């Protein structure tokens, strides 16, 4: 272990020990709405005319930080955005519209509630480089002891060049822009596949072990792809808020997966930190891990300066969340890494790497995609 790795491990251990007494004070998860789907409507076949954009960059102003505060006004639009398209392996697709049912006993927190972090954005020093902030804080994950160990084993490759995270025995969560550009499915979505890393010691050639420098990839075909209508907006510019998609594999895998959770306020994350592992394009064939604190958060996005490069899009962003049932901190997927966003605040440009946060509404939608039964998705 290098001195740097030893220092990082010691730092993380101290953080964990200091946070143990806080566990009992974490609030219960918010009430979850129920997604009520209608019968699917057949659509025309996709042209698969779009090109994959691995370097996904958007621009916005202060409205991105405050979007979602006028919730009552936006609820009708939300039901439209939570409708979804399903793309099948044969190229056919359907549209499923939805309704929302809410039952909030005891006046619990609204599923539309936005997180709050202090009085707002404070002054920040100007950033001039995108995606890598200062010294590169990423770590290559190598060797059987790490590649096959949880949570690194939950990261998978997407054949269009992105990353995904295993969220069930047959489902992978990734970024929508990895399969759809907002207008049409990308060319690579026609025969979409998910890649599982095979460590070098398990690679064999002519019955002998190889000394492969990098792991191989075992590819599995995708049976069904689901994308929210909030992403498929037509000719106007796409928004990061709904940049997520769920892929269903042709058959179950045998690896551990990571459970989903509604994203809590960063104050309720252990160490106020997020983590994710992905296949960054500047380190081909390598799984790259990173962690960093949350800088800012809106109702739909998590702003941070975790170092990342194209190819990491679709990585499962996770944090240690307190689980009341297990009475311990658990790693859970609370967002999906999307890309980069430039924010113009009071005439100043600020840049962030951005993850889509899993809100109660998005949790209800993704949960229905996974289980196919809305009754299984009323609690976390």
Task: Please give a structural write-up.
The protein has 380 residues and is mainly beta. Helix content is 13%, strand content 33%. It is built from 5 helices and 21 strands. The strands form 4 sheets. Strands 3, 7, 16, 17, 18, 19, 20 and 21 form an 8-stranded mixed beta sheet that branches. β20 (328-345) and β21 form a beta hairpin. The two termini are 38 Å apart. The model is unreliable at 1-29, 105-114, 116-130 and 206-211 (pLDDT under 50).
Query: Per the principal axes of the C-alpha atoms, what is the gross shape?
Result: globular
Please outline the major beta sheet.
8 strands, mixed
What's the total helix number? 5
Structural class: mainly beta
Q: Topology, please?
A:
Layout: H1 3-19, E1 34-37, E2 41-43, E3 57-61, H2 63-66, H3 71-81, E4 84-88, E5 93-96, E6 98-101, E7 139-141, H4 144-147, E8 155-158, E9 163-166, E10 171-174, E11 193-198, E12 204-205, E13 208-209, E14 216-228, E15 245-249, E16 273-278, E17 287-297, E18 301-304, E19 316-323, E20 328-345, E21 348-357, H5 360-371
Parallel strand pairs: 3-20
Antiparallel strand pairs: 1-6, 2-5, 4-5, 4-14, 7-17, 8-9, 8-11, 9-10, 10-15, 11-14, 12-13, 14-15, 16-17, 17-18, 18-21, 19-20, 20-21
């Amino acid at each position: 272990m290098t001195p740097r790795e030893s220092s990082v491990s010691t730092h993380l251990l101290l953080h964990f020990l200091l946070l143990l007494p806080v566990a009992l004070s974490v609030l219960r998860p918010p009430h979850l709405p129920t997604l009520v789907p209608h019968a699917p409507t057949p659509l025309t076949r996709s042209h698969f005319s779009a090109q994959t954009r691995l370097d996904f960059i958007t621009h916005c102003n202060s409205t991105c930080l405050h979007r979602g505060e006028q919730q009552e006004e936006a609820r009708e639009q939300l039901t439209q955005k939570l409708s979804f398209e399903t793309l099948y392996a044969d190229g056919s697709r359907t549209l499923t519209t939805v309704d929302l049912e809410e039952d909030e006993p005891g006046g619990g927190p609204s599923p539309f509630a936005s997180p709050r972090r202090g009085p707002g954005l404070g002054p920040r020093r100007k950033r001039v480089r995108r995606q890598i902030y200062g010294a590169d804080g990423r770590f290559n994950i190598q060797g059987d002891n790490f590649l096959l160990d949880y949570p690194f084993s939950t990261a998978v490759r997407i054949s269009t060049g992105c990353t995904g995270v295993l969220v069930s025995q047959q489902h992978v969560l990734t970024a929508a822009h990895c399969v759809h550009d907002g207008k049409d499915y990308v060319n690579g979505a026609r025969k979409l596949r998910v890649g599982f890393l095979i460590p070098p010691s398990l690679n064999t050639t002519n019955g002998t072990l190889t000394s492969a420098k990098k792991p191989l990839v075992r590819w599995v075909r995708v049976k069904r792809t689901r994308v929210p209508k909030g992403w498929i907006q037509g000719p106007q510019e796409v928004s990061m808020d709904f940049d997520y998609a769920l892929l269903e594999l042709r058959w179950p895998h045998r690896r551990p997966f990571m459970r989903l959770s509604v994203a809590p306020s960063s104050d309720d994350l252990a160490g106020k930190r997020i983590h994710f592992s992905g296949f960054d394009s500047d380190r081909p064939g390598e799984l790259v891990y990173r962690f960093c604190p949350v800088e800012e958060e809106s109702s739909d996005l998590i702003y941070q300066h975790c170092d990342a490069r194209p190819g990491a899009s679709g990585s499962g962003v996770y944090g240690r969340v307190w689980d009341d049932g297990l009475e311990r901190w658990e790693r859970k997927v609370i967002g999906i890494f999307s890309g980069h966003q430039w924010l113009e605040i009071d005439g100043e440009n600020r840049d962030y790497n951005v993850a889509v946060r899993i809100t109660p509404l998005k949790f209800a939608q993704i949960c229905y995609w996974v289980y196919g039964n809305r009754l299984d998705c009323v609690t976390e």
